[in-house]
Amino acid sequence: MAPLRHLAVTVFQANANAFRWRLVELLPDGQWSVIEEQASTVKSYSAAMAAGLVRLQGMVEDLSVGPREEEADAPAAKAASGMFGFGFGLPK
Hints:
Shape: elongated
Mean pLDDT: 85
Largest sheet: 3 strands, antiparallel
Oligomer: single chain
């Protein structure tokens, strides 16, 4: 099995009542790299975090084993099905 990717969801506050999620990945040199960012802001930290977690969940083929680095001979990944929102509920 390929190693886990070191991914995290963070929330950036652009200004008062303007939040957006960022997906970041830990690189081998110890630096964090932004791999994706929410296009538009939402009004609360919780809404941004929930949306970011849902996006991260959508990137993971099998949530029981987590996000894995791609293997050289890996077959094409099938789309993940069934969102559960990581227990935060979906943003409103």
